[in-house]
Design a protein that fits this description.
Helix content is 14%, strand content 60%. The chain is mostly beta strands.
């Protein structure tokens, strides 16, 4: 019995000494990682079904050094007639939201670049001129890579302007006559970001 106790004591001592030598690491141990946040309104100027489209929305994100991830939402603000179905009194609706991911290159400089992507899902539809809800509703998926030139106006406020490409998928042509190509288009991007940069 004494041998078993001595053996257990020696084993416990060795394990304690070994565990003290190893330092326990976590993701947030690195003092160089800076965590903060940002958010604000942004807009896109693009083409929807061959017509000028103004998309307005905004987003918020967590900043990990120069990387950021969060969420966004965008919606069409101007009236676009439904020419495909020869009902110009009806108008198109378009809105989507989802994930906002990106990287800021040389963010500590007064003028720098920002690369981001909007990855989301939403709805494309047609509203009759006297209605408030779409009578045709189609679920869509969108990927919108964006490149911006950003200006640090203050430590807590940035303005960005750039270009994006809206790639729409899952548009059901049989439902309303519009295709992925009718919605997918390049565009301009303007953002106002407030946060702890």
């Amino acid at each position: 019995m004494k041998k078993v106790l001595y053996l257990a004591l020696i084993l416990a001592t060795c394990l304690t000494a070994f565990s003290q030598e190893k330092e326990f690491k976590t993701v947030f141990d690195n003092r160089d990682v800076r965590i903060s946040g940002m958010g604000g309104p942004f807009m896109q100027f693009t083409s929807v079904a061959g017509e000028f489209g103004h998309m307005m929305g905004g987003g918020g994100a967590v900043l990990l050094n120069n990387f950021f991830f969060g969420g966004y939402g965008l919606g069409l603000t101007n009236a676009i007639p439904d020419y495909v179905n020869q009902n110009p009194s009806d108008r198109l609706t378009l809105g989507h939201g989802g994930f906002w991911l990106g990287y800021t290159l040389f963010g500590d400089r007064s003028i720098h670049f920002n690369f981001s992507s909007l990855i989301g899902w939403g709805e494309f539809g047609v509203i009759q001129d006297y209605g408030t809800y779409p009578f045709v509703r189609d679920k869509i998926f969108v990927l919108s890579p964006t490149v911006e030139v950003e200006l640090n106006l203050t430590r807590y406020f940035r303005i960005g302007a750039g270009a994006s490409y809206n790639l729409y998928t899952m548009v059901d042509e049989n439902m309303h006559g519009y295709t992925n190509g009718d919605l997918s288009a390049p565009g301009g991007f303007l953002s106002f970001k407030f946060g702890w940069f």
